[in-house]
TrEMBL record, chain A:
Name of this chain's protein: MBL fold metallo-hydrolase
Residue ranges constituting the Metallo-beta-lactamase domain according to the UniProt record: 25-216
SMART domains registered for this protein in UniProt: Lactamase_B
Pfam families, per database record: Lactamase_B_2 (PF12706)
Organism: Candidatus Thiodiazotropha lotti
Family matches, as CDD domains: TaR3-like_MBL-fold (cd07715)
PANTHER family registered for this protein in UniProt: HYDROLASE C777.06C-RELATED-RELATED, SLL1036 PROTEIN
InterPro entries: Metallo-B-lactamas, RibonucZ/Hydroxyglut_hydro
TrEMBL record, chain B:
InterPro entries noted in UniProt: HD/PDEase_dom (IPR003607), HDIG_dom (IPR006675), HDOD (IPR013976), RNase_Y/CdgJ (IPR052340)
Domain HDOD as annotated: residue spans: 15-212
Name recorded for this polypeptide: HDOD domain-containing protein
Gene3D superfamilies, per the entry: Hypothetical protein af1432 (1.10.3210.10)
Amino acid sequence: MHFKFWGVRGSIPAPGPKTVHYGGNTTCIEVRGENNELLILDGGTGIFPLGQSLVPEFPLKVHIFITHTHWDHIQGLPMFLPIFVPGNEVTIHGAADPITQRDIGEVLARQMEYAYFPVREAELNASMSYLNIQEGQSVQVGGVNVRSMLLNHPVLNFGYRLECEGKVFVFTGDHEWPYNIYNKDDPDYPDYQQMVDEQRIRVVEFFRNADVLVIDTAYTDAEYPSRKGWGHGTFASSIEAAREAGVKRVFLTHHEPTRSDADLEAAFDEARKSHDVGRERDPQFELAREGVMVEI
Amino acid sequence: MAIDATEVPDLVERMPAFPQGVTKVLDLASRPDCAPKALVQVIEHDPVMTMKVLKLVNSAYFGLSRPINSINHGVVYVGINTIKNLALSIAAIGMLPKSNKAGLDMNQFLAHSLGVASVAKLLATHLGVPDKDATDFFVAGLLHDFGKVVLAQFKPEEFRHCLDQAAEQERSLHEVELESHGISHDEIGGRLAEAWKLPTALAHAIHHHHHPEHGAEDGGDGMCEAVFAANQIVRSLGFGDAGNPLIAEFPPLVSERFGNDLSGLMSVLGDLSGEMEKARLFTQL
Ligand SMILES: [Zn+2]
Ligand SMILES: [Zn+2]
């Protein structure tokens, strides 16, 4: 199995000279199974250049797994070239919207309505299908098994665990570790804490022994207190969890759009120092970078 | 006239929540800095919102690997923003009218439900149930009479007839319901809970709150018995009113569980006016 980052930026694209090294496109990861099965995780703006690169493979079959439907994870989908070309088969997996009770196909079709986009979903030439993901359900794409787990974010967000010939790749999508919403002296505090602890154990289990973990690490430890509840992880939370789960290699992603390449490296350096990264038996920690391909 | 229980789940989809809950949710959600725990508190004091939120998080949309028992539990699993937006979508349906054609006073009903919820939780602690499960008893107490809201809302004439008969003849309401319509509120609430895949213990406690001997499980933690007992205690205190004129004595199963009869257990619990006052606060707009 191997994968390539096509977008590592969070929230909104951040093009320009200051982000040219790590890249300005929003979330998109291409994953290939041992038989060259094509899976794509999220359809941020990175999916546009990815779509261009796929032309030589037409007609193709692709499975796109959407972690959640916030803009930065779907905004490239209407410009994904394969959906316009007859003969291509595109299957999109994602969470239904439980509030409006719309399934993933309806949610995504809305961003192609008249006011937002010139081509309606119904006019796409590829053969399109949509499948609602349920937690714990596993989907087989050729030799790649994809399992999902609901992770905490301000909308339903699925993390995906991909397994192929004994290799494991995990992507969180956007994820903030649940925290106790009560104060220590509230009667509900201990009860809630127990549920938070249980959930943490389940998530760490989901990451367990992954060869590669790509994890939402939007904030520095200093930024976090003013952004608590926004649905993202921190350098501290990602480093701790990867260690706990016995992961081998970790890519920190969902970089802040305001962070320049230099700022990003400075933040990472500081986190490495303060968390003693590189100590014995530590996972290998790296910043996710657009264009980088990794063999697992 | 018989009531068809199979049509009930669809009807409830469009059922609005209590005015207190709706007003508070709209108010809280309009503040960007709304504390999650404040929102949880409002939802978990409204039987309709609680029932609908539990229904959603236990639905096939999530297919979660374990049942979700309480609003707090739901927040940990699906996140506060999803719960908040769900509460808002329930609030958008409107509010239950304070008075209805059935003649059930919704404020008194809410007081009764909240009273039973608090006492059931107290009894959980009394039984040595761990803190984290005591919340489940609160939920069971809150929802035990959910079937009555459904009847008042969707079968007001039939339900009024039952309320009047129960009052005139001083009979217990669920028996009158059963006789008149072939189904009573406990069964309607229990069936809804089952249809919506709510945790089994919760569905049982609702379904069998007048006959705990049918729902209580050997080695269970006593939720059915606690809801039954709390129901009688709150009525003995004259707190709230949900239309049943009778106070039932404890059947053997319940006396065994608490090692006491109704009056004995009440004297063990002591002064409950503080608890009742807290419950009453939530019934005020
Ligand atoms: Zn994002
Ligand atoms: Zn997001």
